[in-house]
Amino acid sequence: MAHPILIAPSILAADFARLADEVAAVERAGADLLHIDVMDGHFVPNLTIGPPIVAALRKVTKLPLDVHLMMTNADAFIAEFAEAGADYLTVHVEACPHLHRTVQSIKERGVKAGVTLNPATSLSTIEEILPDVDMVLIMSVNPGFGGQQFIASCLRKISSARAMIDRTGNHALLEVDGGVKIDNVAQVLAAGADVLVAGSAIFSSRDYAATILAMRAASQPSSTTQQRVSAHR
Ligand code: DX5
Ligand code: ZN
Questions:
Q1: N or C: which terminus of the chain carries fewer CB neighbours within 10 A?
Q2: Which ligand approaches the C-alpha of residue 188 most closely?
Q3: Residue 1 within a domain
């Protein structure tokens, strides 16, 4: 039976020296997407991975690659990430002055386009682009590092984003990223999320499958969430 929500382990919390094994382990454990955090040391104060790692991962997993670009100049790298095999490319509205052009450039390459917002950025910044996107990502921590605390005030923003997407009538998935743990999954889903990113909650646990199962068990998704998620599959 198809799962009613989507779980995207963030490899930022994986053991990079054993990356292929870690990815195989979360794939076996029932992950739906693989969340890949690209940080440029400029938009966020951390450096992580680039297109060569995405291309290498493409060869070792069937999971859709959900690539989160925390970059000042995402436009300059869209072609490379698309060629590397990204299935979703998600850009920050704070870093994209020509957001419409950026989203079109992602979609022209046959990649699904996502837009994301830092915790202090208003949802109004995505109102105009919403009909064009495949995913909206609400950051529930300030991006840059894994293992941070979920910012509780983001729950209200997730609910507002849910209402905004529903009003627009498109089928964009609503993803939440940062500090998602077994004990707050129920609240995040009740607010209307479709996709949960979880880094430390999964990779710091002893049994990835048990953690993913516990996250699914904590969820009571609405029937509209189930419809969106099954359309994605
Ligand atoms: C934060 C990243 C997140 C991070 C989540 O900047 O975008 O994807 O890896 O990690 P956890 O789940 O540990 O907060
Ligand atoms: Zn992320």
A1: N
A2: 1
A3: no
Which residues, 6 or more positions from 57, have their beta carbon under 8 angstroms from its beta carbon? 11, 19, 20, 23, 34, 36, 65, 85
Domain membership of residue 208 (yes or no) is: yes
Ligand 1, CB within 6 Å, residue ranges = 10, 12-13, 35, 37, 68, 141, 143-148, 177-180, 197-201
Q: Is residue 192 part of a domain?
A: yes
Q: Look at the chain and report how many structural domains it folds into.
A: 1
Residue 90 CA to ligand 2 center (angstroms) comes to 9
User: Can 87 be counted among the known catalytic residues?
Assistant: no
Where in the sequence is the domain holding 51, given as residue range(s)?
Answer: 6-231
pLDDT at 203 over 80: yes
At 230, the pLDDT band (50, 70, 90 cuts) reads: confident
The pTM of this model reads 0.95
> Catalytic annotation on 177?
yes
Nearest listed ligand to the Cα of residue 9? 1
